[in-house]
Design goal:
The complex is a heterodimer of chains A (about 110) and B (about 120).
Chain A lengths: L8 E4 L5 E6 L10 E6 L6 E4 L13 E6 L2 E6 L8 E9 L4 E4 L3 E5 L1
Parallel strand pairs in A: 1-9
Antiparallel strand pairs in A: 2-6, 3-4, 3-7, 5-6, 7-8, 7-9
Chain B lengths: L2 E5 L3 E2 L5 E8 L7 E7 L5 E7 L6 E3 L7 E6 L4 E6 L8 E8 L8 E2 L3 E5 L2
Classes of the chains: A mainly beta (about 110), B mainly beta (about 120).
C-alpha cells in the first residue's frame, strides 16, 4: 500500500498524449515538490521531472509535469514506443519524515 | 558524469546481516544528502533511509528503524547501509541515490544491488 496513489496502468497509441495522475495529501504533495521517474524494463529509475515541472537536461519537452493542491500529473505528448516503461511519482512527507512513492504506473504503447 | 555504484548484495539467511556500499564519483560527494531506496522484484519503489551531507542526521522508514543503519565516509566518497535482522520481505534491489536537498526525493540513481533473504 503506497502513500501516493497512481493508476496501475495506462496506454496510448503512437503520437497520442497520455497523462498519469498522482494523488497524495497535505503532508506530502500538498506542501512539497513532486518528482517523477521513468523506469525502463530491467533498468534503474531515472529522474524525469523535478520540483513539480522542471525537466533535467536531456529530457525531451514531450514530458511535462504539473501540480494542483494535493495531486500531480505527468503528461507525455507525441507518444513513442520507447516511452513504454514504469512511471513513479514521489514527494517528501513532512509527517513521516521521509520520501514517499506512488505504486508506479505501467505505460503501454499500443 | 554522476556515477553511483552499489556493491555487497548477496544471498543471506533470515536473521542475518549484510553491509551494502555505494561508491560515488563525478560530483562533490559532501555537497549532497544521500538516500537508499529499494524495490522488491516486480513491485514499486520503497524509500529506506537518508543521511545528511555531513552525516549528522539520519532518517529511516518505520519498517527499517532499529534494524538498518546508514553511514557515510566523505573522505572515501562512499555511502553504506548496514542491515541486521534481515527478513524474507527485505529481498529487493537496493538503490543508492543522491538528493540535492535532504528533504526531497533523489535526483540520481545507481544501478542497484540485489539482496536476497532466503533459507
Amino acid at each position: 500500500h503506497s502513500v501516493l496513489t497512481q493508476p496501475p496502468s495506462a496506454s496510448g497509441t503512437p503520437g497520442q498524449r497520455v497523462t498519469i495522475s498522482c494523488s497524495g495529501s497535505s503532508s506530502n504533495i500538498g506542501s512539497t515538490y513532486v518528482y517523477w521517474y521513468q523506469q525502463l524494463p530491467g533498468m534503474a529509475p531515472k529522474l524525469l521531472i523535478s520540483r513539480n515541472d522542471q525537466r533535467p537536461s536531456g529530457v525531451p519537452d514531450r514530458f511535462s509535469g504539473s501540480k494542483s493542491g494535493t495531486s500531480a500529473s505527468l503528461a507525455i505528448s507525441g507518444l513513442r514506443s520507447e516511452d513504454e516503461a514504469d512511471y513513479h511519482c514521489a514527494a517528501w512527507d513532512d509527517s513521516l519524515s521521509g520520501v514517499v512513492f506512488g505504486g508506479g504506473t505501467k505505460l503501454t504503447v499500443l | 558524469e554522476v556515477q553511483l555504484v552499489e556493491s555487497g548484495g548477496e544471498v543471506v539467511q533470515p536473521g542475518g546481516s549484510l553491509r551494502l556500499s555505494c561508491a560515488a564519483s563525478g560530483f562533490t560527494f559532501d555537497d549532497y544528502a544521500m538516500q537508499w531506496v529499494r524495490q522488491a522484484p516486480g513491485k514499486g519503489l520503497e524509500w529506506v533511509s537518508l543521511i545528511t551531507w555531513d552525516g549528522s542526521q539520519t532518517f529511516y522508514a518505520d519498517s527499517m528503524k532499529g534494524r538498518f543503519s546508514v553511514s557515510r565516509d566523505n573522505s572515501k566518497n562512499t555511502l553504506y547501509l548496514q542491515m541486521n535482522s534481515l527478513r524474507v520481505e527485505d529481498t529487493a534491489f537496493y538503490y543508492c541515490t543522491r538528493a540535492r536537498v535532504a528533504v526531497a526525493p533523489p535526483d540520481s540513481w545507481g544501478q542497484g544491488t540485489l539482496v536476497t533473504v532466503s533459507s
